[in-house]
Each structure stands twice: as structure tokens, then as C-alpha cells.
Amino acid sequence: MTWRDALLLAARGVSRRFGRAVLTVLAVGLAAALLTALLTIATTAETRVLNELSKGGPLAGIRVSAAAPDPSQVDQDDARPGPPRDLDAGAARRIAALPDVVSVVPVIAVHGFVIPPDPDVDPFLDTVVGVDLERTAQLPITVLEGRLPAPGALTEMAVTQGYLERLDLDPQEPEAVVGTEVEVASARFYPSLGDDEIRGRWTKALIVGVVAQEAAPGQFLASIEYARLAQDWRAAGGSGGFIEVTTSAYSGLFVVARGLDRVGPVRHQITAIGYSTSAPENLIATVQRYLRVVEIVLSAIGAIALVIASLGIASALLAAIRERRREIGVLKAIGARDRDVLRVFLVEASVIGFLGGVVGTAIGWIIARIVTSVVNGYLTAQGLIGVRLGLSVPIVTGGIVGSTLLALLAGVLPALRAARLPATEAVAGS
Amino acid sequence: MLEASQPREAVAITVRALRHHYRTPAGPLVVLDGLDLDVPAGGYVAVSGQSGAGKSTLLSILGGLERPKAGDVIVGGVNVAGLKGDELAAYRRSTVGFVFQHFGLLDTLSARENVELACALARVPRQRRRARAGDLLAAVGLQERTAHRPTQLSGGERQRVAIARAMANRPSVLLADEPTGNLDEDSTERVAALLESIHRDHACTLVVVTHNRRLAARASVRLALRDGKLVAA
Description:
The structure holds two protein chains of two kinds. In chain A, 50% of the residues lie in helices and 18% in strands. A six-stranded mixed β-barrel of chain A has the order 2-3-8-5-7-6.
């Protein structure tokens, strides 16, 4: 008997006991739904927490400072840098050539005076972080509102929520500043001007978006071209007054390692080259461990539900076999081998498991969406950004395949019992 | 008649010193006690006897459904008593066709699918098995009822489907256990005629267990089972 013939017989068997089959499928489906919903919610929560830690950037990110390393700080997440050390393109190339380094993105942070559009807010001193805006995927930058400045733009900036707080605006309403202008000046020291020794290179920039970013401390994000111009202009005046000019081409680098487990070795190698690094590797690893425990607990709850459902399948199949003893006997009497009968019942169990898996995964997804919308309602009320639910292919595939395999497993004993029934069952009632 | 299912060459049946008993709370119940039987290739034998005499047991043993406690059952030169597992399944599938008193049809399948099932077990290709099932059902006069399920057929029609299924793999031996036991007079006559025509046209060896005297009268050899042994009826 071919698998196709076995499938036909199994399908007919299921259709004959349609009501019972539906109940069995629903039992498996509910268990699969529970598992899918729990895992989807757990995965989404994990992604949300890790995103919060990495500000949307790569988890395996390392910040390199234009400073020598402090040997006592090497394994600290937030290492205190040693004395300043120039960081240039040559150093960036050497770091990029290290094994396990995926990318290196230069960062130039320049101080500047800021005059906000609100006349009630005093001008203040802050930092403009300049990065290559074509490589933001490799940086810890998340757009909360609006967009990023265009690559190479000299008159566009994004701001952080700190800027909104500075303006006494609600950080949860970032749209309030998008489209406004801000004046930023890079300061330069003119020793010949006496009391007016400080001059600014003023730029009126359009705020195009609000971001969360950890590339470098600073409330303004601009193109690296803007930051380089400001840095060069400032450097031309030299140090003096409160202005201290460094000769470092970059204020830092953002390095991405091949994985979280490679962050430590890469940090050690960068330290050996001579630069201070920091990375939230220990924090992320700890959080991941806690989240993994939560995931395991939730998976165990779902798995217990699936095991209970599989017992239901085994029970339904055993009942079916009791009812179909003569049918099985007839099959054997007309030449079915033990494995033919085994195949029919295993296929029947698999069909029930597969249908249950499909139904359950769909229901689980719907439950996860409902829970997410409730959670998002709560987060919004608390002034926090909501969770975005992602359809996880491994969870969906795992839910369906897992239900099918578990049903198959549950069907083994009943199927073996059916296969061992003697052919004389065919004439038992005669 | 049944042109689509030309049988394999008819084979002889030889049974020697066949013993069989069932365990009961009161001790072993002997049903076959040193039974001997010779059926020539292409023979037609009717076995009768009282209820509980062991007729169905004898047929089950001949059909490989049940293993005897002792003795030899030689069908076409093969000792069926020594077969097991896949060999025994192959014997049931190819050498014998079995017709049950209660028809033994699968209620979830149509008449055609019931016949096809026997072919499917023998791994006959799908197209050929469909054609063969259609021809066999036409030969038993059920060409208009191929899509009907057993519950939609009369007793006589069900038994004809069962006969068509028994012939699906062109057996050398046809075994029928009370084939008319659940049928009315007209259906009995029709099934009896059908079995006779199969035996005549296909020269297969036919063993029928029956209480029905008219059916038994059609056989060339009539035997009765008494005290676990076969005697002339």
C-alpha cells in the first residue's frame, strides 16, 4: 500500500468519525495555539527588551573611543577610557581587519552652541554626532519619528528625546519638533580678538526626525560631512579659552562583532591595538539569560498542553481501533501487511496533528495579536513606545511540525496495536 | 464473465492431520481433530456442518487467517501453516480470495474503492486498478453502483462487491464463508450462480462453507464436518 492510499484510507476514517476528529483536532489546535501565543509573546518581548538595550543597533556593537585603554577597565561594559589617543582612518582599517569584525563605522562628535526656536529656552552647549548616514543599519540608531537626515546633508539634523525635554516638550510627542529649525554653532578660538576670542560657525538646520541613538553622547545627529566641516573649522583656531582641539580624525568608532560571544575577544584585540572600548555585552548576556529562562518556562507550559493533547489523540485512536477491529481484520484478510495497517493509523494521527497545528498556530497568532494590542494600550498610556509583533517563521513552522510529530508519536502505540490485530478479526462476528 | 480478472493457474489443496482447538475457561475446545482434505486444482467443494463444528475455522486456516495448532495445509505446493509475516500477507493477497458472510466491506469506501483497495495492497498501478475494479463490478452486474457505499447497497449487492474484491488480484483459490448466510432467496440464487460461473469460467479452486443445501448441491464435492473431521455429505 502506498502512502497515498494510506492517506485516502486515513482521510475516510477521519471523515467517518467527523465529530470526534474535529474535537481531537481542536484539542491539538488549542495546545498549539497556547504554545504559539506564548512563544510569540516571549520572542517579541525579548526583541523589545534587547532593542531597548541596543537602541535598535546590533547587539554585538562595540564603541571605540579616541583614547588609550585603561587596563583595569578592559572587561567592564562601560569602561572608563585612558588618556586621549588619536583615532584615524589607519586605526579604523586595522580594527576592520581583525577577525570577527563585521563592520567599522567612524563617528565624529563635535561640541556646539545651540539656539532653539523657542525664545523662552536659553541657548545651550551640546554635541552634534556625525555619522555616515548610509550605514545607520550598523549603528545603534532608531528613528522614533520623522526620518534620518539625508546622507551628506549639511542643513538637516535629527534630535534625541533629550532635546524635547530641554525644550520642556513631552518626549512622547516627538512630532512636535519635526519640521522646526535649530541654529547650531561650532565654536572657534580667535586669540587676536581679545574679549571676543570665541566665534561660531552657524548653521540653521531643519530637524527632520527624532531618534534614539547610542553612537556617541549627544542630542543632535547629523551627517559625518557636517561634523567634519565643523571639526575642521574649530581645529583651525587651535585650543584656547574653554575650547580644546584634538588632532584625532574621529572621536570614536562603532564596531560590530560577528556575534555577542565574539564581543569580548574583539574588545581585547582592539585594546591590544591601543584603544579604549565599551560594550553592553555583559548586560545583554545577562538579560538574554533571564529572557531565555522565561522562554523555557513558557515553552514548558505550551509543551505540557501539547502532551495532554497528544494523549487525547492516542485515546481517540485507541477508541477508533476498538471500533474498527473487523475493518482492520478485513484489511489483513485481503493481504495488508502489518506495516500497511501501521501506516494507515500513523497517517491518520499525522493528519490530525497537522490540522491541529495549522488551526492552533493561526489561533495562537490571533491571541498574540490581541495580547499585544492590550499591552500596547497599556504602554501607550504609560507614555512608552508600543511593541511590534513579528510573525516568526520558526515558531509557525515549529508549531505545525511539532504538532504533527507529537501526534505521530502519540499514534505509534495505537497504530502498533492495530497492526498486530489478527486477520481472524475479519470473521470474528461471523 | 469476469474477463478482466483472469486467475492464476488453479492449485490443489491438500490438508493432512489438521488439528485446531480454542482455549476456553472449561478447557481446550477441539474443533478440528486430525482433519484430512484433498481438493484437486479447479475443484469445487462445499463444506457443511452444524454451527460451531469448525467450518469457518477450517476456511480461516485455508485462507491463512488463522494458524493451525498442528498439521499441514498445502496450497499450490506451499505449506500455509509454515508461512508468517509478509509471506502470509502475500499469500492472502495473491493466492486466495476470501468472501465473508458479513461481506467485510469498508463502509467508508465506495464499491469501486473497496475493490481497488485489494489491488492497492498488491501495488497495482492506479490506472490499471481503476479499470480492473470497473470491469469486475460490471461483471457482477454492479456497473451502475460503483460509486455507492456499502450502506447504500442491498445485502446481495454487497456480497457481489465482496466477490468482485475477492477476485481483484486474480486468485488461484476462492474461499467463501457462508456467502449466502445473510441473503434473501433471490440474492442467494444470484450469488450462488455467480460463484459457480467464476469457478467454471476461471477454473479456480472453490471452497464454500455453507448451510444452504441448494448452494452446496451445486458443488462437485460435498463434505460435512463432524467431530472435527470431514466426511461425505
